[in-house]
Amino acid sequence: MTKPCPCGSGKEHIECCGPLIAGQSPAPTAEALMRSRYSAYVLKEFDYLRETLSEEALKDHDEASVREWAESASWQGLEIHETWAGGVDDDQGVVEFSARYAIDGEERTHRERSQFRRVDGQWRYLDGTMVSGPPIRKEPKIGRNEPCPCGSGRKYKKCCGR
Predict the structure, then answer these.
(1) Boundaries of each YchJ-like middle NTF2-like domain copy (predicted)?
(2) 140: phi then psi, degrees, rounded to nearest 5
(3) Strand runs (DSSP E) across 2-148, as ranges?
(4) Where in the sequence is the domain holding 38, given as residue range(s)?
């Protein structure tokens, strides 16, 4: 029986994060490692979570806290907001994400901007910073009185800005 991957990719687990967690293949990108680490939290694959840490991150790793958080949470979904670098040809990358979960019926969101580094051909989690607020916008904000980018010829506030 096949199951959807917990990471929310829309793929089956055996075609997505499953082979990464099982050690059958390495994560090709920083985002793939991020998704597989989320799936490992959901599936309580603590060895994988430890194995995918960089040396620096491993020094501060608290297995008991990781286990307590993963086991007490009811994981509800992952959303990737943005990635910077972290592709198949990169050695470093950043992934900003939100992980939704509930503890004792209280819904919560863990939002983080994670740093990853490729070490000996394997992506590793390096560090993360908690983030609040909306994702960082890459494109400039459109002013209300500027022409609408849809090409209608009207002002943005009278067209798509409604």
Answers:
(1) 29-128
(2) -70, 150
(3) 74-85, 92-103, 106-119, 122-130
(4) 13-133
- Counted domains in the chain: 1
Q: Are 51 and 119 within 8 A, CB to CB?
A: no
- CA dist 25 and 47 (Å) reads 16
Residue type, 74: S
At residue 85, the pLDDT reads 96
Distance, CA of 75 to CA of 84 (rounded, Å): 25
Residue 66 makes CB contacts below 8 A (sequence gap 6+) with: 46, 49
Please answer whether residues 17 and 39 qualify as being in contact, where contact means their C-beta atoms are separated by less than 8 angstroms: yes
The residue to which tokens 């929310």 are assigned: 8
Residue 99 sits in a domain whose CATH number is: 3.10.450.50
pTM score of the predicted model:
0.80
Tokens of 148: 């609408």
pLDDT digits (tens, 9 = 90+) for 3-26: 999 999 999 999 999 999 999 999
**pLDDT tens, residue by residue, 33-64:** 999 999 999 999 999 999 999 999 999 999 99
Q: Is residue 61 part of a domain?
A: yes
